[in-house]
Fold these 4 entries.
Entry 1:
Amino acid sequence: MAGHSKWANIKHKKERTDAKRGKIFTRLIKEITVAARIGGGDPDINPRLRLAIDKALDANMPKDNIQRASDRGSGSLEGVDYLEIRYEGYGIAGAAVIVDCLTDNKTRTVADVRHAFSKYGGNMGTDGCVAFQFTHCGYLVFAPGVNEDALMEAALEAGADDVVTNDDGSMEVITAPYEFSNVKAALESAGFKSEMGDVTMRPQNETVLTGEDAQRMQKLLDALEDLDDVQEVYTSAVIEE
């Protein structure tokens, strides 16, 4: 990780996410609905639904909204039937990009995603062209200065898969995808509150971009994230300010 500040990049990503909170409720409602449809409406036996509900509560979504979304997914209420689609491609300097969507109109979604890639200097690829470069996992990020030994001991005891110490002193706890909520809760009980965390597609290698390339890549990511049918965008790009 030499050559760039992991912590600065993490804060930059969080700030951009916070700035787009207007769309978060819509995306969370979609995810809750689909999770309930696939695995049932009981979060105690449906880890995907539990994760979606936890994220909704963290975003201060009213519990009534959460329950209605879950009921629509499990069939108790009528609702839109969303289709899960993943698109893959390449950004600036060949950086890998994964775009996860939930849509009720596949034709519209693929056209929108393809247009964003093309307009902002990327290339939409075929299924599986970059997914092998990512690992599906949960992660929790802790600011520089956290007690490394104590956090590592608590994380491994909580069931984390790995603990990574970055060059800038920040630390990341890596979990299995649906162990994320359990590990997060255990660490908070032990006195460790993360700055941010999520279940993600984590790149196995990073592409560091600076200057004009960084600006162009950010425009591509913003264009993809602004699409109504897009739930998540993952990339191997690290954008230096």
Entry 2:
Amino acid sequence: MVAGVSSSGVYGVPLLRPSQQARDRSPDGQKDIGQNTAGLSGTLTDDQQRQVQELKRIDASVRQHEAAHQAAGGPHAGGASFTFTRGPDGKNYATAGEVQVDAGAESDPEATVRKMDTVKAAALAPSDPSAQDLRVAQQADATKMQAQQELRRKGSGPGSRSGGSSGGQDGAEGGATPSDTAAPALAARGAAAYASAYGIGPRTGTAGIMV
């Protein structure tokens, strides 16, 4: 199973559903939207210059966001793909992005626990995780909890040591808590956003990662 972790569209650009993105992107994973050609034949107006500066800021933020996913996801993270908006200066700027992360369970439950720690760390690596990022983190917690339950049934492995520290949320079950083993790899604000979204109290010992 592959899940997408992404930065949401900004600057008034709607973020397409994954199925739409897959259809509309070019083979290199890039999609050019918006054909604002004002100012191409002459000097940009003050408003257009402000638009360009904002697009540059957004482009840098989106690329940093996706780079954080890739760095934390390691071998489970794929390449980044971007949606572009053409600015008044005729240049394309990234205004949304996505990194595909392998979030499928392994055949060995211990390997699944380790993998889900990495998947969750990848989802929460940016300081400003999107709603999709939070859903992937929640999904990783649920998959990890299932693997821990399997280990507890066997009476051995990290599941018995971890107990219920990572109570994933699926169906009628309660909110998930950030994994203790993944915590050092999570960006502080990313983990805080996850905690806030799922009604978890603040935790200590969470360190930021290099972005």
Entry 3:
Amino acid sequence: MPAFRYLVGAVFSLAAAVSQAADPDQAIRATLSKLQPDLPIEAIAESPMTGLFQVHLTGGRLIYASGDGQYLLQGNLYQFKDGNAVNLTEKAASKGIAKLIDAIPQSEMVVFAPKQPKTYITVFTDTDCGYCQKLHSEVPELNRLGVEVRYVAFPRQGEGSHGYNGLVSVWCAKDRQQAMNKAKSREELPPGKCDNPVMKQYEIGQMVGVNGTPAIVLANGQLIPGYQPAPQLAKIALEAK
């Protein structure tokens, strides 16, 4: 995930004038607007740690701030309870990711579903990606284990690349499943011409932190970067439903 432009270190100290706002929400927003006016803030709320506020950004990302807006930090917040460490940041981020992914219509995906799915995964894919092709060869096994596979597009080299053209061909095909099978077998497809969601899905992937393929999102929003063998992937997918 590209580094935020407003983060040059773990902590920032800003001008005292910003801290004059009495309301933490206003103070934090004032700070962030100075650092990055177009920052996509969804909500600001108290974090589980006293005195620390969490800023929810579009795509599930979180940063933390002091109530006066003078200090910001980026990182994971853990809670130690009963001898275990729980990553609270990851849990909150997963909820935001799940919300964004679940808003993508299935009609805009390429779906491989078993007759009786037990859970599902959403896979950001590039037809030119070797590990994407390997994962695709194991889709029948994932289906057999009860995991529905929902593909969304993520052309790693961006618009106009060979991978982008391949994904457009898949999404514009009359039979998307058949086209995906061919593309993942390194078969060249006819050029695709239609209104398609390839770049929209690419942008969603960037928002949730995808920077390579395959990137797998479990039903609970947990993001798993990279290939996982079918038995292992099915196990964690079923645990996350």
Entry 4:
Amino acid sequence: MESPDRTVHVAYDPYVIPGGRTIHGRADGLNGEWSVHLGRQTSVEIVAGLTDGLTRPRSAHAPNV
């Protein structure tokens, strides 16, 4: 899956070792390229929370992590 602006890509492949999900972000003017590799046992709630945090606009009260 890709975000609407194509900056975040989420993939699931259970057949590679160790298998699981990869979340990849493209470099833009402010941020460098990055990726996260999550194992097959990572719950979908964790993946959803991570992708929501990456693709939704930040709240005015959100900390700058």
